[in-house]
Amino acid sequence: MAQSGISSLINARWVIPVVPENKILEHHTIAIDNAGDIVDVLPIEEAKKKYLNVPNVVDRPHHIVLPGLINMHSHSPMVLLRGFADDMPLMDWLNNKIMPAEQKWVTPEFTKDGTTLAAAEMIRSGTTCFNDMYFFPEASAEAIERIGMRAAFSSIILKFPSMYSDTLDGYFTKAQQLIKQYKNHPRIQITLGPHAPYTVNDAQFERVVKMAHENNVKIHLHLHETAAEVEGGL
């Protein structure tokens, strides 16, 4: 009979866990239960004796198995703008190319489709969690909820109207709605996304900090991306 509750075994040449740190396990098995959780990591020979007749056994004799990678800063829907206006100074690229294109083309459908494509590329390269900032984060969250990855989505805030919000207050209203919608979600977090010091004013930053404290959420922004920004902030 199969070991109760165990659905899969992964036998790998090397397993690199998070805990303990700086340790590589050779010729080890990862046991996964019916809920999809890792419940055991042990030498392959021990696993053969402990877990019998498991329905799904994956042998990877020449591979490393390690936890999923995390992309700490992304604009996932922008995969649909790949190759558009490359090799330009940041402000010229942003103000004269990207923002006009986004205002013209970006919709919830654009965001959802771009996030779906980006998720496929991330999964293929071993990334299972990402920290994202873009317009219509609710569309991105909907896509990722279906796909099954983990993600944090920033509710973007700007000092000017956009296709996402006609008013400055609207950015905060949308953020509050998203925070409420995804509170306690097992895989998706909502953060506040004041875009950058050059696109958000001081009063908005103060409001962001207050809202973050009140809702116990994180803040995600661009800061000191170029030498000119660093010099301008001194």
UniProtKB/TrEMBL annotation:
Keyword Transmembrane helix attributed: no
Keyword terms, alphabetized: Hydrolase
Alphabetized Pfam families for the sequence: Amidohydro_1
SUPFAM superfamilies assigned to the protein according to its UniProt record, in alphabetical order: Composite domain of metallo-dependent hydrolases, Metallo-dependent hydrolases
Domain Amidohydrolase-related residues, every copy: 64-231
Any GO MF annotation of the entry: hydrolase activity, acting on carbon-nitrogen (but not peptide) bonds
PANTHER family with a match to the protein in the record: AMIDOHYDROLASE-RELATED DOMAIN-CONTAINING PROTEIN, AMINOHYDROLASE SSNA-RELATED
Name used for this protein in its record: Chlorohydrolase family protein
Organism: Vermamoeba vermiformis
